[in-house]
């Protein structure tokens, strides 16, 4: 077609056809199998964006439908995982659950979130002397982009120069995912001998790049009638999408935060990454921490309902105490300069919490 320089496929990648940050399982240009809706099959290089899009519309791909897995529950049932479970244990959780005056078991699941940075993922590249290439990338991790571009092009890292200008937002979404566009731009530039710019439009960015991880928490909890946590067995499962990316570290971080601000004498926390046919989920501000905290906060609310205590009473009673064993996390870290109790008291006072609670109860009793 007029104005088109080349159409690149998997066989045109001179090096490793992969942009995986941790594991080589993230194919750059699909080769024989497509693992999620939106996976890139071909890269069209042309004079203008309009000509490239017109040419891309003429690319014909023959697909054979295959069984797909989308949810964490489906992945667990199919035993589709990226990782083995990782554990943190303290005490004897099984005995403590057996001996607890009150117990319950449950599940809590929640979805992901798109980063929605104002500037979508973008990069441009220019071939240099002696097989070198310059890449300008909207990335939070220029050295990782350098490493991945080098192995895609099969050149030493010192021949890849990566510059990161000001970004129009990132929030974790341009940590590992930015390497996809940088690799495409560098590959196209070296094959064509010209400057090449690659930029996702908003629809492409939201389709192709990963999100905050959806999580599923399964738990058994033991506590007494005063709302004191005695034991918690929590299994976290994250939806990693089609490739591992940073999901292992994100899920581990969720496990580390299963206690949030609360001391639990007997624990067994675990985390495992499920493999699904979705875009590969990735870093997002908080990096798994918010997901772990959400699960334990849901547990605290359920304890409040089970005991009939106010939620703020249950939470206050279970905060790390600031001395001895009750100030140590399940992974053995003593909390230095513990100010949780002071912060709690000051916030309760400054927010006028008790008065607001009374006003809310009165408002709820008023007729509509």
Write a compact overview of the structure shown:
This protein has helices spanning 49-56, 72-78, 93-99, 142-153, 178-192, 202-208, 247-256, 289-307, 311-318, 340-350, 353-365; strands at residues 4-8, 43-46, 86-90, 102-110, 122-127, 133-137, 160-163, 196-199, 215-223, 229-239, 266-274.
Account of the 3D structure:
The protein contains eleven helices and eleven strands. With 368 residues, the protein is of the alpha+beta class. It folds into two domains: 154 residues, Aldehyde Oxidoreductase, domain 4; 172 residues, Aldehyde Oxidoreductase, domain 4. The protein has a five-stranded mixed β-sheet, with helices on both faces. The protein has a four-stranded mixed β-sheet with strand order 7-6-5-8, covered by helices on one side. It is elongated and about 75 Å long. The termini are far apart.
Key descriptive features of the protein:
11 strands; Aldehyde Oxidoreductase, domain 4; alpha+beta; 368 residues; 11 helices; 2 domains; 5-stranded mixed β-sheet
For the biggest β-sheet, the strand order reads 3-11-10-9-4
Distance between the termini: 67 Å
User: CATH topology of the largest domain, which one?
Assistant: Aldehyde Oxidoreductase, domain 4
Judged by helices, strands and strand pairing, the structural class is alpha+beta
For the record, what is the CATH homologous superfamily label of the largest domain? Aldehyde oxidase/xanthine dehydrogenase, molybdopterin binding domain
The main β sheet shows up as: 5 strands, mixed
Q: Uncertain runs with pLDDT below 50, 5 residues or more?
A: none
Amount of beta strand:
15-25%
Mean of residue pLDDT values: 97
By DSSP (H or I, 4+ residues per run), the number of helices equals 11
Instruction: Spell the H/E element sequence.
Output: EEHHEHEEEHEHEHEEHEHHHH
Q: Let me know the number of strands.
A: 11
Overall number of structural domains: 2
Shape: elongated
The CATH class of the largest domain is Alpha Beta
Helix content: 25-40%
CATH architecture of the largest domain: 2-Layer Sandwich
Gyration radius over CA: 25 Å
């Amino acid at each position: 077609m007029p104005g088109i320089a080349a159409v690149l496929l998997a066989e045109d990648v001179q090096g490793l056809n992969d942009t995986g940050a941790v594991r080589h399982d993230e194919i750059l240009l699909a080769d024989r199998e497509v693992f999620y809706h939106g996976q890139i099959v071909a890269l069209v290089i042309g004079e203008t964006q309009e000509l490239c899009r017109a040419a891309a519309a003429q690319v014909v791909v023959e697909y054979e439908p295959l069984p797909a897995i989308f949810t964490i529950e489906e992945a667990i049932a199919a035993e589709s995982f990226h990782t083995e479970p990782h554990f943190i244990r303290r005490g004897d959780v099984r005995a403590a659950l057996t001996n607890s005056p009150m117990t319950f078991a449950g599940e809590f699941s929640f979805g992901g979130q798109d980063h929605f940075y104002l500037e979508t993922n973008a990069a441009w590249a220019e071939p240099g002397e002696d097989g070198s290439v310059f890449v300008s990338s909207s990335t939070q991790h220029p050295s990782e982009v350098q490493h991945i571009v080098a192995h895609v092009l099969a050149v030493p890292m010192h021949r890849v120069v990566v510059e990161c200008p000001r970004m129009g937002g990132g929030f974790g979404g341009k940590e590992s995912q930015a390497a996809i566009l940088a690799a495409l731009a560098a590959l196209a530039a070296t094959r064509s001998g010209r400057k090449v710019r690659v930029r996702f439009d908003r629809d492409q960015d939201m389709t192709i790049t990963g999100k905050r991880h959806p999580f599923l928490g399964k738990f058994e909890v033991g506590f007494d009638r005063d709302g004191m946590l005695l034991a918690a067995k929590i299994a976290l499962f994250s939806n990693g999408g089609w490739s591992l990316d940073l999901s292992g570290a994100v899920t581990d971080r969720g496990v580390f935060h299963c206690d949030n601000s609360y001391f639990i004498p007997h624990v067994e926390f675990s985390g495992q990454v499920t493999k699904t046919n979705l875009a590969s989920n990735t870093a997002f501000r908080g990096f798994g921490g918010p997901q772990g905290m959400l699960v334990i906060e849901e547990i605290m609310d359920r304890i409040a309902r089970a005991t009939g205590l106010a939620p703020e009473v249950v939470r206050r009673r279970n905060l790390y105490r600031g001395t001895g064993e009750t100030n140590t996390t399940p992974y053995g870290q003593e909390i230095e300069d513990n100010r949780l109790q002071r912060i709690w008291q000051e916030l309760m006072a400054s927010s006028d919490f008790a008065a607001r609670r009374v006003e809310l109860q009165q408002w709820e009793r008023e007729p509509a």
